[in-house]
Amino acid sequence: MDVQTWTYIIVGITFLIYISIAIWSKASSTNEFYIAGKGVSPLANGMATAADWMSAASFISMAGIIAFAGYDGSVYLMGWTGGYVLLALLLAPYLRKFGKFTVPDFIGERYYSNQARLVAVFCALAVSFTYVAGQMRGVGIVFSRFLEIPIESGVIVGMVIVLFYAVLGGMKGITYTQVAQYCVLIFAYMLPAIFISFMMTGNIIPQIGFGSEGQDGVYLLDKLDGLHRELGFTEYTSGDKSTLDLLFMMSALMVGTAGLPHVIVRFFTVKKVSDARKSAGWALLFIAVLYTTAPAVAVFSRTNFIQTVNNQIYSNLPEWFDKWESTGLIKFDDKNQDGIIKYVSDSSLNELTVDADIMTLANPEIAQLPNWVIGIMAAGALAAALSTAAGLLLVISSSVSHDLIKRIINPSVSEKNELIAARISAFGAVIMAGYFGINPPGFVAATVALAFGLAAASFFPAIVLGIFYKRMNKEGVISGMIVGILLMLFYMTKFKFGWFGGGTQSDWWFGISPEGFGTVAMLTNFLISFIVSKYTKAPPANISKLVEEIRTPSMDES
Question: What are the φ and ψ backbone dihedral angles of 29, each rounded to 5 degrees?
Fold first, then answer.
């Protein structure tokens, strides 16, 4: 069977599984809709958290970034994994003890202010919509290539599937669907990596294989460095980004991770604080499987890609090139009209434009693996994108129904009407997510990185100060969040959308990229919060007492 047939069969089976789980786990109360009734086991929650965490950016785009950026791409690995550890070990137990399952709810109660809650709702929506744009874009890319439909149509299909199980099952449906999605995505990611590692190095362990000798006796990384030198690129194992930008990018990704609302809520779906800690450990283990494999996938795909396309006759290229070319994610411009592809760093001579998002997905095809393996890869990519999209949509839904309607607009709303509002909010969120998926601000990982910057600029200081600084008051945190999020939004829209006069890389402030500017906005948030709090009234005594209590979370807390 051809790739398309295999893809339809495998994707169809996985979608049936997801829909069946959604029907089985339909939420009947707001408690089930928001936090799965606190009835999820640590193991299942760890697996669901891993699926939630490993988005389209992790599955599709991360290895692609590393493949093109080499050493510079390592900031994504370090930032995202470090951020999860920061969240799981430093912040999550305290938030779980506090008992507020949404970040806006925590901020509203800790800072005794609906104004603070309202600002937090705005920040949660900004973060989540930016993040979900990347996921929907990933869905569109997979459908476009493997099912051969336009990216826009692929995004719409993904919207319908997510809408079904997110709206019907809420967190309960999402959690158990994500358990299935983790199994699909990790199998899909590891299988080609093991195949290719064995083919290229004779070692079946990708994490070891990419640092080993190839079949020609040359170390794979040395070979890739040599290919880069020949083509005029920076050596793969070197970098050309400034140390400052790398540091700021890693920091933004790390602290942004610790402030992501869709990950934080995961620690409320289990019965006790001790279970939350266990599920965090399980999640870290499940995440590590993919994240330690990504550098290997990057090396394999980059090496095979260069050797397959450079200096090759265009008309003789394999079928996969034509298929990806039809998506618009790879383009050949025969500048000298000789019919031979020239792939070099010099833009005046280079004839090939490649989107980083195709590298992981195209890797099995480039390596000429069986068609069924390629179909599994497509199903895995969809699982990764849909699992995270569903978690983000729930954050958007709960921000509107719980934090805005229940806490501010109509506190006396019935549980039935709140559940209806949550589902309507999820529906509206899916529509907006689809729009941003069709019109994203960049490739998948870059879009996601911007979301982390927004989370770093807004939520991280508010959460940290709320836990560890009793003197922080509502005036300080409101001022800090507003300045932080607006500063990040300004910088992002200026250099990504061309607003406010636009600008190029040479115009970046202090040489810091939009993906790294979240650190600057975060530091500004901290500074503003401290200054304003020093010159305004201290929090009430009951709030100070509350902070003291949540600093020592009980292992038995329900």
Answer: -145, 165
Cα separation, 317 vs 191, whole angstroms:
25
Provide the H-helix boundaries in 87-113: 92-98, 103-110
User: What is residue 482's predicted lDDT score, i.e. its pLDDT?
Assistant: 95
Evaluate whether 130 touches 455 at the Cβ level (below 8 Å).
no
Return d(Cα 391, Cα 388) in angstroms, integer.
5
Joined together, the tokens standing for residue 426 give: 């999820």
**Whether 87 contacts 258, CB under 8 Å:** yes
Strand partners, 352: 332
At 558 the pLDDT is 47
C-alpha to C-alpha distance for 26 and 75, rounded to whole angstroms: 39
| C-alpha distance from residue 120 to each of 22, 191, 422, 447, 478 (Å) | 30, 41, 18, 21, 9
pLDDT attached to residue 465: 92
Bridge partners for 219 per DSSP = 213
Give the burial class of 2: count Cβ atoms within 10 A of its Cβ; 0-12 exposed, 13-18 middle, 19 or more buried. exposed
Per-residue model confidence (pLDDT) at position 444? 55
**Residue 461, pLDDT score:** 93
- What pLDDT, on the 0 to 100 scale, is given for residue 519? 93
For residues 437 and 424, what is the distance between their CA atoms, to the nearest angstrom?
A: 20
Backbone angles phi, psi at 10, to 5 degrees: -70, -45
Task: Collapse the DSSP code of 330 into the 3-class scheme (helix H, G, I; strand E, B; otherwise coil) and give the result.
Answer: strand
CA angle centred on 356, ends 257 and 80, rounded to 5°: 15
Question: pTM to 2 decimals?
Answer: 0.82
For residues 429 and 40, give the distance between their C-alpha atoms in angstroms, rounded to a whole number. 25
Q: Which runs of consecutive H residues, i.e. helices, occur in 99-211?
A: 103-110, 114-146, 151-201, 206-209
Give CA–CA dist 399/407, Å, rounded.
10
Q: Are 93 and 553 in contact (CB under 8 A)?
A: yes
Structural domains in the chain?
30-302+367-550 (1.20.1730.10)
Q: Which region holds residue 217: left if phi is over 0, alpha if psi is between -120 and 50, else beta?
A: left
What was the pLDDT predicted at 442?
55
> Could you report the average pLDDT of every consecutive run of 10 residues in the chain (558 residues)?
85 84 71 70 87 76 82 82 79 77 85 90 83 75 77 80 70 81 89 91 88 81 88 81 85 82 78 81 89 90 88 87 84 87 86 84 87 88 78 78 84 82 81 75 61 86 90 94 93 84 86 89 95 93 84 54
Are 360 and 64 within 8 A, CB to CB?
yes
Nearest partner of 340 among 311, 319, 316, 317, judged by Cα: 311
Question: What would the two tokens of residue 471 be?
Answer: 């003197």
Closest CA to 434 of 54, 62, 55, 161: 161
Cα gap 8→279, rounded to integer Å: 34
DSSP β-bridge partners for residue 303: none
The sign one gets for the Cα dihedral 37, 42, 45, 49 is positive
